[in-house]
Structures are given as C-alpha cells and as structure tokens.
Amino acid sequence: MKPHISDRRPISARNSKISQNIAALLTQTGISPNSISIASMIFAAGAGGSLVATKYSTNNEIWWISSIVLIILRLLANMFDGMVAVESGKSSAIGELYNELPDRISDAIIFISAGFASGSSPHLGYIAALLAILIAYTRTLGNFMGVTQLFLGPMAKSHRMFTLSAFCLLTALSQNIFEIQNLFSWGLLFIITGSVLTFLRRVKLIVVTLQRHNG
C-alpha cells in the first residue's frame, strides 16, 4: 500500500453555502492557504493567553468567553485553509506541512495553557496536550501505512476543541449561577479519558485494516 499524503478531514460545514462563499471571498483577496494556517496558530496563542488570564483576573468571565471565540476561530481557520487551497488550486506537498505542523503547535499551546487556567491542573494540561499530539501522530502513521480516514473519535480534534469550549462556558456560568470546585479540571479529565479511547480505537482500526489487507 502507498503512503497517503493528503487525507482530508470530513467536515460537514464545508458543504454549507456560507462556508463556500467565505472560502471564495478569501480566495479573491489573494490570501494564501498557508497564511490561514499560520493565522490558526495565532488564534490558538490568543486562546492560550486568555485561558491563563482566567487565573489572574477577578472578573474572568470575559477571558473564558474570549477563549471560546479564539478556539472557534482557530477551528474555522483550520477548515478554510484547505477550502482556499482547493478553491485557488494551490494544494501542494508543502501545504501539508503548513496544515499539520501549526495544528500540533496549536493543540500544545491550548491544552498546556488550559492546565494553568483558573480551577485547573498543569499536569492535566500537559497530559491532554501529549495525547492530542499522540492521536495526530497515530493518524499520520496510519496514512503512511495506507490506512486513511482515521478521524474517528470520540475525541478527534474538533471534538476536543468543542468540549474544551463547552467547559469554558460552564466554568464562566458556574461562577455566578452554581459553584463547582475545580470544574475545569473535570473538563480536562473528560477530554483525557476520551482521548485515550480515541487513540486505542485508531490503533485498533489500523491493525484490523492491515490484517484484512495482508490476510
């Protein structure tokens, strides 16, 4: 089996008219897909800074909301870099590098920062970051071995980011409505548990697929 370089994540939002119009507009501006990939990393850095800021601000609701907005912008940039590449016909091998490397850096920034957020634990942040990178490595390894479409969850990238955003919102609300000690730590534990399951499911799929082809 041949290594599979380009293995596009299935995202239903790509098919919406709004997304396609935005991608067309970005293409018309002349912005490169690689620039959008770099922008996703900048959004991740902003999200990381906002998460850390929650620990040092007395009125930190604005920082929790800022984290959510920047995490979503990061995900949108991840989606539009590929759409603009297809729209503009600028897909390339080096584009794969810009697509994957900023993602890994962004995951590390966000989860390590999440460990230093209010009501969180640095250890959990580091573990979540390592698992995010391990899951991505497993997908890349599977592609190299000829096993494609390794995007299954329950904690694929988009799932991790939306779950983290949900706990940002719950933590912001809990400060004024109901108080749960270390809520954000519980959120990271939930993501870590799902990430371990995701890693095991992907490894199992690689093994089963290879056995089927070689059996």
Task: Describe the structure concisely.
The chain has helices at residues 17-29, 33-53, 61-88, 93-115, 122-144, 157-174, 183-214.
Write the layout of secondary structure elements.
Layout: H1 17-29, H2 33-53, H3 61-88, H4 93-115, H5 122-144, H6 157-174, H7 183-214
Helix pairs in contact: 1-3, 2-3, 2-4, 3-4, 3-6, 4-5, 5-7, 6-7
Explain this structure to me?
The protein is 73% helix and 0% strand. The protein has helices at residues 17-29, 33-53, 61-88, 93-115, 122-144, 157-174, 183-214. The protein has seven helices and no strands. The chain is mainly alpha-helical and 215 residues long. Helix 5 packs parallel to helix 7. The model is unreliable at 1-5 (pLDDT under 50).
Q: In this structure, how is the largest beta sheet organized?
A: none
Oligomer: single chain
Number of β-strand runs: 0
Kindly provide the name of the CATH class.
Mainly Alpha
Number of spatially distinct domains: 1
In round numbers, the mean pLDDT is: 90
At the fourth level of CATH, the homologous superfamily is CDP-alcohol phosphotransferase transmembrane (TM) domain
Q: Radius of gyration, rounded?
A: 18 Å
Cα separation of the termini: 14 Å
| CATH-derived architecture | Up-down Bundle
What name does CATH use for the topology? Answer: Four Helix Bundle (Hemerythrin (Met), subunit A)
Number of helices: 7
Spell out the helices and strands N to C: HHHHHHH
Query: Share of helix among residues?
Result: over 70%
